Structure formats: C-alpha cells, structure tokens
Amino acid sequence: DIKGFAFDLDGVIADTAKFHSQAWHQTATKVGTEWTPELQEALKGVSRMDSLEMILKAGGHENDYSLAEKEALAAEKNDNYGKLIATLTPADILPGMQAFLDELRAGGYQMALASASKNAPKILKYLGLTDYFVGIVDPATLHAGKPDPEIFARAAEVMNLPADQVAGLEDSAAGIQSINGAGELSIGIGDQLSAATVKFTDTAQVSLANLRAALGE
Ligand code: G6P
Ligand code: MG
C-alpha cells in the first residue's frame, strides 16, 4: 500500500517549467545552440550544470568554455530564472494540485519533495505550500541527479517509508527513470512518459480516486 508521495516540483506542483525553458533558451541563443522542442523536453528534471552541458553539447560547443565561464553562464541563467519566479503566487499552483495535497494531508499520507532545483524551498514559500512537506531533499547533497534513483530513494528515507510504499510524481523522462530505479510507483504527468507505471495527461487528473482506478483497485 502506498503511504507516501514524493513530488517533483517544476511542472508538477508549480507552473515553472516554462520559466526554466525561457531562461535556458536565452543561454542557448547566447552560446549558439539551436533551441528545439526536443532539447527543451530533454532538459526537464536535469540539474543546472548538467542542463548547461547538454545545451553546449547540442550545439557542439562542449569544449569551447572553461569551467569558470560555464559557472558564469549557469549563474546568469539562474539570475534570469530568479526574476521570473519572483512573480509566483499561490495562483501559479498547477490545476488540481492544491486539492490533491489537501486530500493527501487529510488522508494521513506523508509528502516529501524530490526536486532537482536549488530554488525549490523558495518556490514552495511563494506558493504557500512549505508546510505540507515532511522534508525536502537537498539536491546539493546528491552524488548524482535524475535519472539516477538517488533523489527519490532519499525522499523515501525522509518519509521513513520503504520504497514499495512510495509513489513519485514526475513530468520528466529523467524523473520517471529515477522513480522506477528507486523501486517506487511512478506517476507520469504529460504525454511523453512511456516508462511511467501510471500516466495522467495533466495535473488536473491527479487524485487518489483516479490513481486507484488506474491501478485497478
Ligand atoms: C528541475 C527542473 C530543471 C532544472 C533543475 C535545477 O529539475 O525541471 O529544469 O534545471 O530543477 O533547477 P535549479 O533551480 O537548481 O537551477
Ligand atoms: Mg519537473
């Protein structure tokens, strides 16, 4: 039985995936990498420095920048992103997610955050959602980011639950791979997540009743 839920943040709870894309698009233009829908999708769930490496590689620029220059590019992206998220309010919680969090809390489920974003605590505060979570995995302490299972395994630890009692919610292929690798139940949100055990087309579909129905319970 599922007793806890590990949430991704960007694109699952908050409508911030578009802001990451907007800021990375600027970086791609600056380094001369063509911005494509495939690149945009592949960057979802990927850490800041890994995202920059993917953008450089996509344009064949992986050897054109020193570490210091890469750090400056990543810092500039984060500044641009920071300006975009400063406008967030509870109105930017994705459809259905406030109700789902309330339903889980009322049902006595545990909740933890498994976001690769170092901006996650700030975003939860802007959205007024901090108190729902028993813990937030700090991505700075990870050995490997998504698709590695570590972050979702750590979320189960935070909730003090074995992996088979945890469900993870994700909008990225890298994240679904991480959940599956951790031995948890993967719930994919969006239409590009064939590896997810349960699939919802959008956040408005996410509820305990729909989850039970999808699992045939
Ligand atoms: C999430 C997003 C990614 C982002 C990553 C790191 O996983 O889906 O697009 O690159 O977090 O975010 P940060 O805020 O630390 O740069
Ligand atoms: Mg996401």
Automatic annotation (TrEMBL):
Reaction catalysis annotation: beta-D-glucose 1-phosphate = beta-D-glucose 6-phosphate
Swiss-Prot/TrEMBL site (Important for catalytic activity and assists the phosphoryl transfer reaction to Asp8 by balancing charge and orienting the reacting groups) positions: S115, K146
Family classification: Belongs to the HAD-like hydrolase superfamily. CbbY/CbbZ/Gph/YieH family.
Organism: Limosilactobacillus ingluviei
Swiss-Prot/TrEMBL keywords: Carbohydrate metabolism, Isomerase, Magnesium, Metal-binding, Phosphoprotein
Coiled-coil regions listed in the entry: none
Domain of life (superkingdom): Bacteria
CDD domains reported for this sequence: HAD_BPGM
UniProt keyword Transmembrane, yes or no: no
Residues holding substrate: 8-10, 24, 43-48, 51, 77, 115-119, 146
Active site: D8 (nucleophile), D10 (proton donor/acceptor)
InterPro entries: B-phosphoglucomutase_hydrolase, Beta-PGM, Beta-PGM-like, HAD-like_sf, HAD-SF_hydro_IA, HAD_sf, PGP-like_dom2
Protein name per the record: Beta-phosphoglucomutase
Positions bound to Mg(2+): D8, D10, E170, D171
UniProt record, GO biological process: carbohydrate metabolic process
An example Gene Ontology molecular-function term: magnesium ion binding
Enzyme Commission number: 5.4.2.6
